Each structure stands twice: as C-alpha cells, then as structure tokens.
Amino acid sequence: MIKDNQKYLNRIHLLIDALVVAGSYMLSWYLKFEGPFADKTKGAHTMQFYFSALYVIIPAYIIIYYANKMYTPKRTQRMEYEISNIFRANVVGALAFLVAIAAFKITDFSRGLIGIFFVVNTLLTILVRWLIRYILRTFRKTGYNLKYILLVGYSRAAEEYINRINANPQWGYVIRGILDDKVPRGTLYRGVKVIGTIANLSVILPVSQLDEIAVTLSLSDYDRLEEIVALCEKSGVHTKFIPDYNSLIPNKPYTEDLMGLPVINIRYLPLTNTLNMISKRLVDIVGSFCGIIILSPLLLIVAIIIKATSKGPVIFKQERVGLHNKTFNMYKFRTMYVQSPKEEQKGWTVKDDPRVTKVGRFFRKTSIDELPQLFNILKGDMSIVGPRPERPQFVEKFKEEIPRYMIKHQVRPGLTGWAQVNGYRGDTSIRKRIDYDLYYIENWSMAFDIKIMFLTLFKGFVNENAY
C-alpha cells in the first residue's frame, strides 16, 4: 500500500518537482529565445551556458520548497493553501535568482527569462500538484492508500470528527471504532461503533494495524489525558488530540507561543491588526467620498421627492450601537410619516406597514434610503462592509437571547455585509444573520470586502424583506 511506502512516495514527489523545475526552465528558455514571438537576434549567452544554471536552480528550488512546507502531508489540506505555498516559494526563488546574478556579477543574463520561468514554473507546479492530488484521492475513494484510526473517548469532538471524515472520503480515513467508559459497547454513530472501554487500549494497540489514534475525550475526562497519551506514545502509533471545547470556544481559535508555552486565544479577529484596520479605514474614506460625489445628483433628487410627498425632515436620524458598543446617530432618508418618539420605539416594519410612505416603500425596497450612511462612513461611525448596526433596545434583547451576539460590536458596523448579500436583511432570522456576521468578522480580508461590495452591486440593493 502507498502509506507503507510513504518515504518512497516523498522521494518520487521530490523527483517530480525537480523535473518540473527543469522542464519549466527549458520551456522558458525556448519561449524567450526560440519561440514564435522570440527576438532571435538577442542573447549574449549560449544555450549551454543558460542550461548549466540548472545545476544550481534545481537543488535551490527543492530547498525553497521544503522551507515553504510543500512536502508536508496534504490529505486534509485545501488546494488554495498549497497554491499559496507554491506562489510564495516561486516568488522567493525568482528573487533569489536575481540576487545571485547580481552577487556573482553575471552580466547580460536575461531578466526576461527569469520572469517567464517564474510564471511557467508556478503554473506547471500547480497543475502537477493538482494531478497528484486527483490521482491519490481517486485511489483513496476506491479503497487504496487508506489510514485507519481509532478514537479514544466519545464526545461532541468525536462526533464532529466523524462527520467530517464521512463527508470527505477523498481524505482516505477509516475510523475503526471508539473506546469509551461511559457510552455502552455497540452504540453506533454514523456507522462508527463503540467497541470497548478505554482500558482495552493496552490490548488493542499491540495487535491492531492502526495508523493513527485520535484522542477525543469529553471535557469531564481530561484528568485521564496524560495517562492515555503516554500509553499511545509507548505504542509508537501517531497520536493526535482533538479538544472538546466547541461548547466553550465555538468559533475559530488560534494559538500563540509564549516562550514555549502554547496559549489558545478564543477568537481571532483580523481587524484587530493595526495594518488591517488602517487599510480598511482608508478604503472607507476613499470609497464613501467618491460615493457621495458620484451619487450627489441622486441624493438631491431623492431629497426633493421626499420633501414634496410628505411633511417632515428629509434625513431621519436613529440611534444605533456601533464599534465597542458606542452609540451613534445613523442617517437614512425618511421613508415613514413623522412619528412620536414612543411610536418610533416600536418593532421593525411589517408588510403593508401604514407608517411607511408610498415613495418610502420603493426607497426601502431598493435600499436607496440607506445612501446617507455614506456620511456615517466618512465620519468613522460605520464602514462600507460590516455587520448591520442595531438599535440599543434590540441589542439589549438579543445579547440575552443569542450567544455571541455582542462580538459583532468588535468591528465597525457596515452599509452592507456578508449576511445582507446572502439574503438576511430586514424581517429575517437574527440568528442566521449573526452566524454570517461572525463568519465575516473572523475571516475578514480585503479581498473578502471587495467580494461583498461586488455582490452588493448585483443582488444586495433590492431587498424583498424590507417593508
């Protein structure tokens, strides 16, 4: 089986990478000097001179690939992470190439060749890695190259692990069973059976053909963790620990090394990074300023229509809760008849709400009433993208009813957001909306913001749930 010859597979993988690097370099030389678009009159060095560089390039790139974790196990690694590693390794390789040429004073070495090699090698390496993944995953789906796992401890973590293994047969994992002291033998979960107690571990390990042991103890059994890990380590079987803390840490945690002491941070928020905060704020300032300038004719027309069709101010100000739980006045075009403060404290608008004006109904459906929030963004109360802000009375209500609701106030609220472009606006599920908001907060990137803005242009303005 392939897993029994992993070291040989790794050597083959390394050899394939060496061939790809060599082939990419030769193809790049051809495209530069002999291809249909090549300038054949140029070139200070011979083909033999350029190809002799491969004696240095191939081992150098293999070392760079090792440094960029391109030879670590990839059963469960997503392809986009591997692409990122390949791109980073090739950037380092190209820079090292240029530095070496300058350091050794190699004159007239074609920089264009290096640029072509960077592109060709990156693309071919990605293609070859994808083919290798496809071949291995096909083997695993048909019953080859499998890894057999035993779970120690029945817990929510064990169930989540089984769910993911069952949903991804291409990983090639097979769970032999679960050992637990509290759940009866024979109990079945998604095809995986409790086959004995934890005490049976000392009997099973010497005779079973196991590749991995996953310790999935429940929180109440963590006092046995040291004993179980010691027993697993003594057997020589690879052991991993899957903590059962989803009830305590329901979002994506991250670890840091405090002088050798691992520290688990309950939640990672990319926007706590100063550089991320500054870059997002700059986009907000430029975006809101440009939006105000471009949309100023529309803003003026809407203001005239509102003033001409109903009595009252054009702009409606409403207190909302924003960053760090601080309140601010959020601006909207007035879409309702003027109400008393008591009436204003009522719940959300409902279908055919009599408080909404005729033109206001259209402005709410098309989200035109939200455009004055560009001034909130320019002031710094809001961001272009982020969780929608809520009124104080609803914040007080929801924070008691919905777990993790208050986390949304660790970032600036937004004019649009991930929940909104997925249809959770107006009279929709608050719990679902918070799930999307939390996903956005924990997975923020500038590319994610751009994606949300793009989606807003096509499906975010028309709101079927706005009454």
How would you describe what is shown here?
Strand 3 (188-189) and strand 4 (192-196) form a beta hairpin. This protein has 467 residues and is an alpha/beta fold. The longest helix has 36 residues, at 274-309. The chain has helices at 6-33, 47-52, 54-67, 79-103, 111-141, 156-167, 201-207, 225-235, 274-309, 341-344, 358-365, 373-379, 392-401, 418-421, 430-442, 446-460; strands spanning 147-152, 173-179, 188-189, 192-196, 212-215, 238-241, 254-258, 261-265, 315-321, 327-333, 383-385, 414-416. It is flat. The strands form 4 sheets. Strands 3-4-2-1-5-6 form a 6-stranded mixed beta sheet. A two-stranded antiparallel sheet has the order 7-8. Strands 9-10 form a two-stranded antiparallel ribbon.
Q: Strands, helices and their partners?
A:
Elements: H1 6-33, H2 47-52, H3 54-67, H4 79-103, H5 111-141, E1 147-152, H6 156-167, E2 173-179, E3 188-189, E4 192-196, H7 201-207, E5 212-215, H8 225-235, E6 238-241, E7 254-258, E8 261-265, H9 274-309, E9 315-321, E10 327-333, H10 341-344, H11 358-365, H12 373-379, E11 383-385, H13 392-401, E12 414-416, H14 418-421, H15 430-442, H16 446-460
Parallel strand pairs: 1-2, 1-5, 2-4, 5-6, 11-12
Antiparallel strand pairs: 3-4, 7-8, 9-10
Helix pairs in contact: 1-3, 1-5, 3-4, 4-5, 9-12
